[in-house]
Known about the structure:
Blueprint: H1 3-15, H2 21-28, H3 32-39, H4 47-57, H5 61-88, H6 94-117
Helix pairs in contact: 5-6
Amino acid sequence: xxxHNKKNKLKDYRTRYxxxxxxxxxxxxxxxxxxxxxxxxxxxxxxxxxxxYHLLYGMPMQALIDNDFMLLKSALIDRLFMLSEQLMKxxxxxxxxxxxxxxxxxxTRLNTEEQHED
Length: 118
């Protein structure tokens, strides 16, 4: 999800409750300027803001974190592959073999979850 879509959803969910931005900023104990930037897509919402929009306005968490979630997941898979390759170059002891098997299991699980999310 790009920030443009995220920004529209933040504002859409808040305005469904007819809550002005200034009131929302007060409730969230945050600066109205920053909250406006989150809603306009100039800043990515913090975890606090994402959870608050979920709790207050019913915005699904997945809609708030989708892009960050997928970027982190992709980076983790890349790092797991790199670590697996490094370990394969080492002397293959039982410990190293177990580590490689665990890493490969994580890669499989992450890739399987990825298919179910699409």
